[in-house]
């Protein structure tokens, strides 16, 4: 029996597509993954240069959560994009990816947008610690994360964040826009605003972390205001076709409890639907098929689904056995995280129906160094 993965004509995952003005050779996206491999000052390391270059066959790479300012740092060794040194470090990454994609004339390939990389902008809000960032965390309300946070000296109780003032909000929105401009200057084709997984934007969205009584709190239409302002400031800075948004409806990570998820995301997606953004990226998109279908009906542009799956879940006809995401819900691309972590040649393996490497030890994902990061074998080395 023929494996549908070996025949690109029978599987939409391997067909070309387009986001914004960027042509992609396939619909497999490397999802952004925090891996704590940057230097202590937030400058991307040579480990990161190799890691992303090795995965250059992805249709699109969304590089890991990167802080737009110092106070937004979450964990140790998270990259930033708010200093000249950090920008230069990311330039080494994008140059290496372009070279691996077969674009040796780097300056010309930058002009033509031949890199297929976006950078995720992530502000941690209350998820930080002064021992890591040097700053008291900011958040919509002074409500601490109900768990420990990682610091350079190990896990510590989360501090109570400082409630953001109107000036803090304006400054943070401007910092996102400035970070987006730096990202494009560093060679990325665009940026993804991280509105998911309990980071700052979702802290404004969720009713248990947003107790504000001004125009940024209360009803869903007001709780979406900060996210909308950030996305629009970024789009104005670099262009809507270079701007994506990641959301995670009803995901409870980092102590989130949104309360009225359907109303919240109907309002958010409806508000941004006419802005011409590059894409909407939905985390765990297969966990609530009804909401996914509803948001797909509202969203007129490219939709990236980020499900939890293995190779056996990727089926013919461009679908997924878990919910038939591409086909049934209308997702245009599929983002995979741990699959790309453990398989630098994931696209080739899926296309050929080859065995997959499994993530060996989740602990190694965050410990630094080559182990559990750059030592997963590609097919050729496996055969050898």
From TrEMBL:
GO terms for molecular function: FMN binding; oxidoreductase activity. Residues 13-357 form the NADH:flavin oxidoreductase/NADH oxidase N-terminal domain. This is Alkene reductase.
